[in-house]
Amino acid sequence: MEAFAGGVADSDKVFNGLTSAIDDVLSNTSASASLRHEVLQMAVTFVCGISQLSPGAYFLRHDLFPCIVTTITSPDTQQFTFEASLLLALLANFHKSDAAKLNPYLRCIRETTNEELMRKICWAANFAAAAVVRAYQEISDDSPPTLTATFGSFLSALRLDRALAAKPVDPPRELFKNQPIEACVILLPLFEFLHGSATFRRVFAATLTVQEEEKTSTRIASLPLTLLSLSSYLLSHASSSSSPRAIAYANLAMNTLLVVSESDEILAALCQDTQDEIRLCRQRQPPLPPIQPPRPPLCALLDCCILWLRHNLHKKLESHCYLTCVRACYRILWYLHREHVRLEYHWQELWRALILLLDFLASKLDSLTTTGGVEQLVQETLLVVDFALCRSEQILPSPKAVHELVYEVVRSADVFRKQKTLLDKLAGPHTSASQKRLSGGQTRASQALSNIAALAEQYEAKLRDAGVRSANQGLRAVAKDIEQDGLSYGADLHGTDDPP
User: Fold this and answer.
1) What's residue 431's pLDDT?
2) Which residues contact 190 (CB under 8 A, 6 or more apart)?
3) What pLDDT score does 432 carry?
4) 274 strand-pairing partners
């Protein structure tokens, strides 16, 4: 107030004049595009600078949503959609946690049905997200392997200086310390619109269908596919550089994927095969199995979850982002079960990633920098594994996939045995209302763990009696037993309602 208005007494006059001037210029389609662009940039800079301080309240009193929409939809200023949508998202986040009902921008995002506006934002977001992906790829080429590249790698491996290398290694982390580039901020308006607007979710999903119909050699991938590609890079490199900025963007990306997984309309579109290649990050070892199109983009969404689960297990654990990831996996599995969709996918990679998380938490709990949210994370991860086992025959595409799931649980029996000790160690008094709800979740998680442990012990005994000595023999023995007697599992804890 002092810096901009010279004192509190003159603040109303100064800041009301500022917001009115911004509105007048951005609404004036007769003004030059360069002038409107400069005013838009000034507004973005000012709103970023004041953050959550009191001058932001003047932007709530003077609703700039109509002039921002005019900027985005006008032919001479539509090229500034990136900055305009960013301004809208910044204003929507002013005191969002404590005064969301008073924020007119959140209400406008929720209520607007202007599909032209939505399409322009999708267009700008797609180009910005693609630029972020290219910046990662320019640092380290992670193109999918081809016959020529594979042969070249083989010849390279014959060099004396590489002959003794045990396995491929990750690129140096320092290379990614400045990533992602600034264009990644487009995730903020994308999240706000996906979270708040049913119309935007419909337009977002429709871009997949439109792109499939417009087959040209020069077009770029549709926004949902670009978002998945971008998320894969953010989630793979989030904690590798120890950058709070990179972790913040990864959290935003994961929350965006959770919103996507909560939308039946978007998931229905993602379940349809696409011929487009979805470039997912392969810059961290081990890379995901390469899959050639066509395949449903929903597979890439699950791949993004696997990348986060694999590559961010550190002492300073981002437990809340892990919890978001596990919830996204749960909702996807729930959707597949409810809609009777049997997704062809490398499911073993997902089961291994979830079990790896449980093993890490049980083994490293005492050395974690923070344990906030770890109890709930363990509980919800156990419930995901329990749900997959309980509904496996309705979710998984083949008996082989069911056998592989059961075998992964059996071979990790020791990990699940550790979870009982872990939950006991994390448990504390539950007195408040929120803690009582957590206690209820703890009871379900304990029941889920009992189901999983009983299954693991049952097949462990059978494999031991059969004298199994290798993984292949174990998988064949599990498959034979399930084919003969069926899969006998514990109580169904999941009911028929959608997950919370």
Assistant:
1) 39
2) 121, 125, 129, 227, 256
3) 45
4) 295
